[in-house]
UniProtKB/TrEMBL annotation:
The keyword Endoplasmic reticulum does not apply. Signal peptide: none annotated. The keyword Electron transport does not apply. The chain holds residues 512 to 767 of 780 of the full protein. Keywords: Membrane, Transmembrane, Transmembrane helix. This is EAL domain-containing protein. Residues 1-256 form the EAL domain. It comes from Sulfurovum indicum.
Length: 256
């Protein structure tokens, strides 16, 4: 079998698993949200990370069906946690490829899925990478605008690494900006990165974006960011790697 055939088989036979990584408040490390990240249990190659198969899935167009699978899984999880009375997160974010986003039936199918599980629009946010916006800028912009109008907040992901034009920030209706971990890696030794982060934070605030900083691994890095702005949220191995849903629940969901 080719990887391509395996990918299609996995979609039909629950070959994927969803992991969650906590998104925390930098002031007190309280967990306020989570990002959903997909993993693939390949029958021969073992656990595969997105880097091993997402590019192929995009090329084959299977990314759209993967995206729907992820949304359904996230809806099921939120719905279950609500029934158990343990849903306390502000939101779970999902990564949606622009190819899926601009399909004609996207918004209709998206809201139908939320309705089917009785999920509020504020419970889910959509992450779109800066790079994937570029191809169909006008259309992508329209869909994001419609989603935001209907209560789904959108996150611009991996900010600062694409061919980012700052004019995006005023043209597109995003609510949250995620600063790419490239700026955090080596932050404690690199004053230039600190300067860039300061500038991105200042611009983001000007346009009323909430900020998530990605890839904090060390306490020193966290302290530098907290000094820049004590109101951002962050994600990083310092708090936790992405975890299987049950492990995330055990570790980060309070039960009383
Ligand atoms: O999971 P990692 O922890 O290795 O994720 C690597 C990259 O893969 C992330 O930057 C993310 O954008 C992408 N990715 C992870 N899960 C998904 C998914 O469900 N859908 C899409 N489109 N991309 C994903
Ligand atoms: O969609 P996106 O690119 O934002 O996905 C987040 C990616 O970043 C995932 O691959 C996740 O595993 C990874 N990640 C999250 N926190 C850290 C971190 O502290 N260090 C490193 N190296 N990677 C991280
Ligand atoms: Mn992301
Ligand atoms: Na990112």
């Amino acid at each position: 079998f080719t990887l391509q055939q395996d990918l299609i088989y996995a979609l039909e036979h629950e070959g994927f698993e969803l992991y969650l990584q906590p998104i925390v408040n930098i002031e007190d490390d309280s967990v306020n949200a989570a990002e959903a990240l997909i993993r693939w249990h390949h029958p021969k190659q073992g656990l595969l990370l997105p880097a091993d198969f997402i590019p192929l899935a995009i090329e084959l167009g299977v990314i759209t069906e993967i995206g729907w699978w992820v949304l359904r899984k996230v809806c099921q999880t939120i719905s279950l946690w609500k029934k158990e009375g343990i849903w306390k997160l502000d939101y779970i974010s999902i990564n949606i490829n622009a190819k899926q986003l601009i399909k004609e039936d996207f918004t209709e199918r998206f809201f139908a899925q939320l309705n089917a599980y009785d999920i509020d629009t504020k419970d889910i946010k959509i992450e779109i990478t800066e790079t994937s916006l570029i191809n169909n800028f006008e259309l992508t912009q329209q869909v994001i605008h419609e989603l935001q109008q209907r209560g789904i907040k959108c996150i611009i992901d991996d900010f600062g690494t694409g061919y980012s034009s700052l004019s995006y920030l005023k043209k597109l209706s995003f609510s949250v900006l995620k600063i790419d971990r490239e700026f955090i890696f080596d932050l404690e030794n690199n004053i230039a990165n600190e300067t860039l982060i300061r500038m991105i934070v200042a611009i983001a605030k000007q346009f009323n974006y909430k900020i998530v900083v990605e890839g904090i691994e060390k306490l020193e890095q966290k302290e530098i960011i907290k000094n820049i702005d004590a109101h951002v949220s962050y994600q990083g191995f310092l708090v936790s790697k992405p975890l299987p849903i049950n492990d995330f629940e055990e570790k980060f969901i309070e039960k009383e």
